[in-house]
Amino acid sequence: MRLGFHASHEQIAPSRLLSDVQHAEQAGFEMAMCSDHFGPWSTRQGHSGYAWSWLGAALARTGLELGCVCAPGQRYHPAVVAQKIATLGEMFPGRFWTALGSGEASNEHITGERWPRKEVRTRRLEECVDVIQRLLDGEEVSHDGLVTVDRARLWDVPAVRPRLIGPAVSVASAGRVAAWAEGLVTINQPVEVLRDIVSAYRDAGGRGPLSLQVHLSWAPTREEAEAIAFDQWRSNVFTEPVNWDTETPQAFDVMAEHVDMDAVRGAVEVSHDLSWHRDRLAELAAVGFDDLYLHFVGQEQTGFIDAFGAEVLPALRG
C-alpha cells in the first residue's frame, strides 16, 4: 500500500498548493493527485487554479508520481487532453496518470453548450477515451460522433504511455470503466459499498491498481475537526444527480444550508484522534486498495501534513 497526498485546487491557491505538495513529499507522502475544476464547490472554498499548469510545476519541483482527474468532451477537446497527457508523460516518464471521467456541470457549463443527460455523457466519455488512447499510441485520428476529431496527431508521443484510470463512485460505473481502464480510483464510502465497487471492477476484467481518495478532517480537538469539515465540505455531501447537474457554487451553498454535521460525517472521516484515523485508513485499505490518497478538507495543510507524516503514515506502513 502506498500513501499519497490530495491537492485540492478548489480550496487552495496554486502557489500555496505547490508549497503544500513539496511539504507533503518531505513529510513522507509517496505520491499525489489533484482535482481539475474551473470553479469551487462552494464560495467558502474560493479557489480554482488551472490544474495542468500546476502539474508541470509540481512534477518539476518534486519526485512524486502525480495524477489528475479530467473530464474530456465538453470543456476540453479529447485531442487537446491527449496532447496535455503526452507532454507531461514525455517530460516526466512514468510519473503521471490521468483519470478520465464524464464530468460535472459545475465545470462544463462554462462552454454554454447543453449539459447532456448521464447516458449521453457516458457514451461521449467512451468515445473520448478511444480517441485519447489512439493518439497516445501515435495514430492519426479522425472521428465523427458525440465528439468530432479531424486528422489529429501527436508529434511528441511519450516513450512510457501514462496510465488512463477509470474513476467510479458506483458499482455500475466501476463495471463499465473496466472495459478500458488501467486502474480504478474511487472515494471513501461505507466499506460494504467499496467492496461491491472493487468486486464489480475486478469481475468485469478490470486491471491495474485500485486507488482510494479519502476525505478526512483532523485537528487537535474534536470541535476544531468538526468545524473544519462542516465549513469546507458540507457542499460536497450530495449524491447524483445533484452533484453532477448543479452548475454554480452559489447553488451548492444554498442547498448546503440544510446540511447538518451528521451528513458531513457521511462524506468525511472526522476525528481529532490520530490513532482513529490510522485504524480507519487501515480498514479502508483492507478492502483491496493499493493506493490511498489522503485529502484533508481544511485549507491550511501544514498541521495535517506534519501530524500524519510523523504518526499516521509510519504506523500504516508498519
Distance between the termini: 11 Å
Shape: globular
β-strand number: 11
Poorly predicted sequence stretches spanning 5 or more consecutive residues: none
Report strand order across the widest sheet: 1-2-3-4-7-8-9-11
Total of DSSP H or I helical runs spanning 4+ residues:
13
As a percent range, the share of helical residues equals 40-55%
Listing every helix as H and every strand as E from the N terminus to the C terminus, the arrangement reads EHEHEHEHHEEEHEHEHHHHEHEH
Assign the structural class, choosing from mainly alpha, mainly beta, alpha/beta, alpha+beta, or little secondary structure: alpha/beta
Mean pLDDT score, rounded?
97
Tell me about the biggest sheet?
Answer: 8 strands, parallel, barrel
Name the beta content range. Answer: 15-25%
Q: How large is the radius of gyration? A: 19 Å
Describe this structure in words.
The protein is α/β, with parallel strands linked by helices and 318 residues long. The protein is built from 13 helices and eleven strands. The chain has an eight-stranded parallel barrel with strand order 1-2-3-4-7-8-9-11, surrounded by nine helices. It starts with a strand and ends with a helix. The model has no long low-confidence stretch (mean pLDDT 97).
Which features characterize this protein?
single chain, 318 residues, eight-stranded parallel β-barrel, 13 helices
